[in-house]
Amino acid sequence: MDLDGLRALLARHARPDATTAIDGVLVSQVEQSTPPSPSMSGTVMALIAQGAKRIALGDRVYEYRAGQYLIASVDMPITGQFTEASPERPAMGFGLVLHPATVAELLLQAAPGDLPPAGGGAPSGMAVNDAPAALVDAVIRLLSLLDQPRDIAVLAPLIKREILWRLITGEQGAVVRQLGLADSSLSHIARAVRWIRDHYAQSFRVEDLAQLSGMSLSAFYRNFQAVTAMSPIQFQKQIRLQEARLLLAMQSSDVSGVGHRVGYDSPSQFSREYRRQFGAPPSQDAARLRGSALRTAPALV
């Protein structure tokens, strides 16, 4: 496994916003360990070439380090931190955004017997595994295209499909495969997750979300917890608090107004839950964050 070659490419092409000239490909380089920071995971595969990162999802904790990759098949509220990074030895990572349509296309093209048998129930929306040499090799070839811009349009889609195929047929393939199966338990839960994200300020009945997902109430609770490590109400609270933090950090100093905007009728409840989540009252936390560029790239890289 050529991690040295991967590190050289990541160091050469890392930018502050983590984006690259290849659509959906992200690279990062972090020169110091970071405190836990909340964000959304995105639907991505993230491969660490150097250093380590810890991700908390609900009551689950995932840690991945050099030579390992993490998959998030649902966009979920997480708390992440780089645990091994320094100017002399920065943490470096590669990310690839996962699209359900592309996964579905590959699944349709697979011959009978090419894919492992499907398991029952919804898998966790997040998984960690050691990266096989073939996957690292494909990532290196994809990143090498950044040194040959003329080849990106033609070759990048082919290599991205290869990487996705390695994931689909790998040890954590069930997590990725369900992303492209329209009738999978994960896709049904993802429908509910999108609804909560789009309507986070509204109250809802869990029974209505279960109906939206095409599941019984008990099956919905069980599968939602399996995928997100949270109940639907806990998930909504995480989204509300993250949206409030973004609003406060970007511009607003009206704490009560922001709390009401994200769905809190009680200013005291908003302040109490905000402080519990972020370690400081809303106004104090916002003052610290203003002037700092908020990261918009998926947070797993």
UniProtKB/TrEMBL annotation:
SUPFAM superfamilies: Homeodomain-like. Pfam families: AraC_N (PF06719), HTH_18 (PF12833). Residues 190-288 form the HTH araC/xylS-type domain. Keywords: DNA-binding, Transcription, Transcription regulation. InterPro entries: Homeodomain-like_sf (IPR009057), HTH_AraC (IPR018060), HTH_AraC-typ_CS (IPR018062), Tscrpt_reg_HTH_AraC_N (IPR009594). The keyword Transcription applies. PROSITE patterns: HTH_ARAC_FAMILY_1, HTH_ARAC_FAMILY_2. This is AraC family transcriptional regulator.
